[in-house]
Specification:
By secondary structure, the protein is an alpha+beta fold. The chain contains eleven helices and 38 strands. The strands form eight sheets. The protein has a ten-stranded mixed beta sheet with strand order 1-2-38-37-36-35-33-34-32-31, sandwiched between helices. It has a four-stranded antiparallel beta sheet with strand order 3-4-5-6, with no helix packed on it. Helix 2 packs across helix 11 and helix 7 packs antiparallel against helix 8. The two termini are 52 Å apart. Keywords: Aminopeptidase, Hydrolase, Protease, Serine protease, Signal. One of its GO terms (molecular function) is aminopeptidase activity.
Length: 653
């Protein structure tokens, strides 16, 4: 009898395992380069509705073509962004690179001897970018880096016969400065390998005998140096004892003054002038109480352009280097301005402009007449972008106080334009953590708002950049969860605001924003319907131990050093993998297999733990992507699945 019962029990166990394995097999499938687990078939209704929104594109300025022949841009017509030439404003886009991997940068040699440009490209999103030379004469590309290290920050000498760049080739961990001669560009000479951090070349002196370089250590600390190429002497510009950002930018035409941006003695990053002989620093833009971000200088070194991050929007300024006076460029739409560069021989500035209603496009500004020319007109899938949700800047009270008043957290709200509330809400949390949500063109947000009736709220919680160095440091170290509390207070604000549906709130975020999603799911799970975690950190200790070696020390400065027992205990205490029992609502985890920043193991262990706790989780893994999806076919499949997930778990349809 006992043997019979044992026999029956064994059969039942075998049947259970077989059924379970069968269910698992049904729930796991491969589509192209994508592995999907528990992700259902996307109904035609969703794919049809979203198709137009997936067929918008943007263009970004890369460089001016030699001999006034036009411009080089990056845009996407196939699966990846590639380089194109445009010979006149409004002219046709002629594709010149045809890789499976995206290409978005390029820099022409200033020398007429070398008719071509340098660009970088990685494989499958692994971020180990290699340097290539593109020859305009025969339209061919040649790799000139070692094929193994990570390379970036290409900077041409004024003569165009040499270029400096940053590379990890010495030990695959540290980022040093190298110089290559165009006579033999594959042979690079190591010039600066002193200490940790990222060493980046900003500019060559007018006689090409010196470089100004920056040693980036963290979001709150960087150093600037003058490097003498002939003597290998390295001279520091800023005060090393002061914790401040000091970024070298460019030389003036005399080679005796250097322009930099710094928050040394200031709350925001300010443009300053450094006198090489007297070592005196003169503040140039200290009356602007916002961060100076991108900076460019013209070839004669008489004028510069810079952008200011004004509450999340870009403002463009022109600077006269003779008098250090500046003025704002008027008549530009409110949005994001980036990738700008002066024409080599004309008083013209090319810019990439992106607004909530227009995707990135390239414009040129005649600095003499103020006339604007539009070089590209990117397609928007036939959509009427005037119906897209407009970013509304709001602020809400959080839990602590500043000078006796409740601290205010800025956020951007995108509401449906064609329906009335109360709206379901998706809270979109940026990464970084020292990132910032800035309003720009988003066909994804437009689809959620216009087609699904979902409002998007994107907060810039403490620790975000753009609001001063004090705000930036409010979530460092043992203060990590203070930023999570800001999300909790946003949820309370939503609950008190009648135009939003307090019973339908989701959280969405990538990278560090993915951690914020997971943390919100266990801290405020009773108030949330679901969460979407894209390449997110699930355990700070395993993340710090497994992120690529070249990133580890820099991330420890931000998150804390897991090798310190007290910090390790704290990091484990706030890691989502140690609070699985509190995550009871549906979760969608999305990951790139080649991610060097947040390894795929972070997502895998999260998915495994939730399943072991009998929780509901969808999982999407792209085998040819890294830290985010750059290929159109993968992005399309991801957005379709996200729409399905929200329809099922937020809208309950």
């Amino acid at each position: 009898m006992k043997n019979f019962k044992f026999y029956i029990k064994t059969i039942l166990i075998c049947l259970f395992v077989a059924v379970f394995n069968s269910i698992e097999a049904q729930n796991r499938k491969e589509v192209g380069n994508m592995i999907l687990e528990n992700v259902p078939e996307i109904p035609e209704e969703i794919t049809t509705r979203i198709q137009q929104y997936q067929n918008t594109r943007s263009a970004s300025f890369v460089d001016w073509l030699p001999n006034d022949e036009g411009i080089l841009i990056s845009t996407q017509f196939g699966n990846t962004s590639q380089l194109h030439t445009v010979l006149q404003a409004g002219g046709a886009r002629n594709q010149i690179t045809f890789f499976d991997e995206p290409v978005s940068n390029g820099s022409f040699s200033p020398s007429v001897t070398y008719n071509g440009f340098l660009f970088t490209k990685d494989i499958g999103g692994n971020e180990f970018s290699q340097i290539y030379w593109y020859d305009m004469n025969n339209r061919t590309s040649t790799m000139i880096s070692d094929g193994e290290s990570r390379n970036y920050g290409i900077n041409w000498s004024n003569k165009g016969d040499r270029f400096a760049f940053t590379s990890s080739r010495r030990n695959k961990k540290d980022f040093d400065i190298y110089i290559s001669d165009m006579k033999s560009p594959k042979s690079a000479t190591l010039k600066v390998d002193r200490g940790g951090g990222y060493w980046i070349v900003s500019d060559w002196s007018p006689d090409d005998s010196k470089l100004i370089i920056t040693q980036y250590l963290s979001s709150t600390k960087s150093n600037a140096f003058i490097f003498n190429i002939e003597t290998n002497k390295l001279t520091q510009i800023n005060d090393d004892k002061t914790e401040a950002v000091f970024l070298a930018r460019f030389w003036d035409k005399t080679g005796k003054k250097i322009y930099a941006t710094t928050n040394q003695g200031k709350e925001f990053n300010t443009l300053v002038q450094y006198d090489v002989d007297t070592k005196e620093i003169t503040y140039v833009t200290d009356k602007i109480e916002w961060d100076v971000e991108e900076v460019a200088i013209n070839k004669p070194k008489t004028k510069a352009a810079f952008t200011v991050n004004e509450n999340g929007f870009s403002r463009l300024y022109l600077l006269d280097l003779e008098s250090n006076t500046y003025e704002k460029v008027s008549n530009l739409p409110l949005g994001q301005i980036s990738s700008f560069k002066f024409h080599p021989s004309q008083a013209t500035l090319a810019v990439t402009l992106n607004t909530a209603e227009t995707p990135g496009d390239v414009y040129s500004i005649d600095l003499t007449t103020g006339e604007h020319k539009r070089w590209t007109s990117s397609e928007v899938g036939g959509l009427d972008t005037s119906t897209f949700p407009k970013p509304e800047l709001i602020s809400y009270e959080t839990y602590d106080e500043v000078d006796g008043k409740k601290r205010q957290i800025p956020a951007f709200v995108y509401k449906p334009q064609n329906t009335a509330g109360p709206y379901p809400v998706m809270i979109s949390i940026h990464g970084g953590p020292e990132g910032q949500h800035t309003p720009n063109f988003s066909s994804f947000y437009a689809f959620l708002a216009n087609e699904m009736g979902i409002a998007i709220i994107a907060p810039n919680v403490r620790g975000s950049s753009g609001y001063g160095k004090t705000y930036l440091k409010l979530d460092n170290g043992f203060k990590r969860e203070d930023s999570v509390k800001d999300i909790g207070m946003l949820i309370e604000w939503i609950e008190k605001t009648p135009e939003f549906n307090k019973d339908k709130i989701a959280v969405f975020g990538g990278s560090y924003g993915g951690y914020m999603v997971l943390s919100s799911m266990y801290n405020f799970g009773d108030k949330l319907q679901c969460g979407i975690d894209i390449v997110g950190i699930s355990n700070f200790v395993t993340f710090l131990e497994n992120t690529e070696a070249y990133r580890r020390d820099l991330r420890r400065l931000e998150y804390g050093d897991e090798r310190d027992p007290k910090m390790r205990e704290y990091l484990l205490s706030i890691s989502p993998t140690n609070h699985i029992d509190k995550i009871t609502k549906p979760l969608f985890v999305i990951q790139g297999a080649n991610d060097p920043r947040v390894p795929a193991s972070e997502s895998e262990q999260m998915v495994k733990s939730i399943r072991e706790n009998k929780g509901e989780v969808w999982y999407m893994l792209a085998k040819d992507e890294g830290h985010g999806f750059r290929k159109k076919v993968n992005r399309d499949r991801m957005t379709e699945a996200i729409a399905m997930f929200l329809q099922t778990n937020l809208l309950n349809e």
